[in-house]
Amino acid sequence: MPQPGPVASDPLRRVAEVMHAVRDRCVWTQQITHRDLVPYLVEESAELIDAVEAGTRDDMREELGDLLWQVLFHAEIAARDTEEPFDIDDVAAGLEQKMVRRHPHVFGDAVARTPDEVLVLWNAAKAVEKRERRSVLDGVSQRMPSLALAQKLLGRSAEVAEAPRVVASAEPETEAELGDALLALVAHARVNGWDAERALRERLRALEADVRRAEADLEE
To answer: Which residues touch 183 (CB under 8 Å, ≥6 apart)?
Structure first.
């Protein structure tokens, strides 16, 4: 079996070289674009979430690797762009600089003794980086799952004004009223420090387990 290239000194560099060789030699990989990879990125991210919340340590290690492969894949595609190329080293360098900037209490003279103080420093550094943004809602992806998006929008809106009061009907009778009820539940979750998206995922896992048990009982 041909080697992907010179043997690198660390696993991250070696897997980056494997990705480079795959892009060079695999005809399927050669025709993949950034947009083609998006469904795989969504799928791998979901599988990592499953591993974190309901899997084993081995599951989590494997899924982290699969997600890393997506990062390497995108970087390898970008490295071959004829107009604005960048590679995994550029990605890593940008990340390193960002994390140093956003942790002045670790790499500078700032002091943060509580998680809330850390968050203040983080947000201040982020505000400087994103100063071209005109709204606290800029940068929030509309492709987030709806419950997670609702929680994010409620949190961002609270940065500039009191969180909007959501009034829901006791018994929704229309789809619009159902939307109000769902948003009110997300607002309630946020006030209590709960993750609405995770809460529903865990309840759905319990439902799936109930269905599988019922199917098994029917087969006996």
So the answer is: 150, 166, 168
Q: What mean pLDDT is predicted for residues 52-67? A: 97
Alpha-carbon distance of 69 to 87, in angstroms, equals 14
Instruction: Tell me the per-residue pLDDT of 149-168, one tens digit each, with 9 for 90 and over.
Output: 999 889 888 877 665 566 66
Single-letter amino acid code for the residue at 51: A
Residue 39 is assigned to a structural domain of this protein? yes
Q: Residue 24 maps to which CATH number?
A: 1.10.287.1080
Residue 9 in tokens:
């000194």
Domain closes at, from 41, 63, 86: 86
Which residues have C-beta within 8 Å of that of residue 110, sequence separation ≥ 6?
104, 121
Average pLDDT, integer, range 110-128: 92
Tokens at 64, concatenated: 């982290």
Into how many domains does the chain fold?
2
Q: Are 34 and 74 spatial neighbours (Cβ–Cβ below 8 Å)?
A: yes
Q: b/e per residue, 147-163, with b = 16+ CB within 10 A?
A: bbbbbbbbebeeeeeee
Residue 42 belongs to a domain: yes
Tell me the whole-structure pTM to 2 decimals. 0.77
